[in-house]
Fold this sequence. Notes:
Number of strands: 14
Shape: globular
CATH class: Alpha Beta
Distance between the termini: 42 Å
Structural class: alpha/beta
Oligomer: single chain
CATH topology: Purple Acid Phosphatase, chain A, domain 2
Helix content: 10-25%
Strand order of the largest sheet: 4-5-6-7-9-8
CATH architecture: 4-Layer Sandwich
Order of helices and strands: EHEHEHEEHEHEEEEEEEEH
Amino acid sequence: MTDRLRILHLSDTHLYGDGRLQYGLVDTLAALDRVLARAGELEAVDLVVVSGDLSDDGSAASYRLLRGRLEPWAAERGAAVAYAMGNHDLPDAFEDVLGERERVISVRGFRVVTVDTTVARAGYGLVGEERLVRLRTVLAEPSANGTVVVLHHPPVPPTTGLFETLRLVDPAPVLDVCSAGDVRLILAGHYHHALATSAGVRGIPVVVAPAVANTTDVLWPPPRERAERGAGFALVELSGDGTVRSQFVRAPAAGDGETVYDLDADAIARIAADAGWKGEA
Length: 281
């Protein structure tokens, strides 16, 4: 048993089963290939995490493409793989190809728990009582080196306006359950940009991976929202004493930095009306 876990953290691959380009511009499968080629330079990986929005069209074919790329890459390195559901994913196809949406695996003395934060036909996230009970039950018995929780919607506030109504609604109960247990690290995606912070009464480290599909421009002046070409990943090291070290790595390509979309306030309002949280949080 080792007291260190090296994690390749990917998120938001947004694959299509039929090879379509995202927004008519981005070949997300080619972006994934670039990311895996770049990550292949790592000396060692114990765990590969993909924290949601694995697919853009929710098709079984898209999940087969992901599995066909990722699992041989992980197997060559002796790494385990953990997939989490995102708001673009569809549960039936996800489970048919990749297995259960919520799983518990053990890697080198660390427990890895995936939590489904998705709400059907919505862009925001929510962890209801049934999922909270399941997480609390899992965490009731400590693991040897602590627990890593993987979910799609980060339990921390968004950086840009687009995600204000697409955030995780009421993250406090999730963080309370994690803080009461042996959770050492929370991995998330959804925001399409790198973020390292902490949350909960224990200050649990939270790492949001950069997206494979495209990158949110966090400096774009509000109320507009912009994404640009660019793909990357996070390398996260978790020690048995709870120390977390995160590095964010680009997988460069020609055209990086070009605009994928530029939304005005009206477009953001339409997204909020269609997929956003309508209540109080």
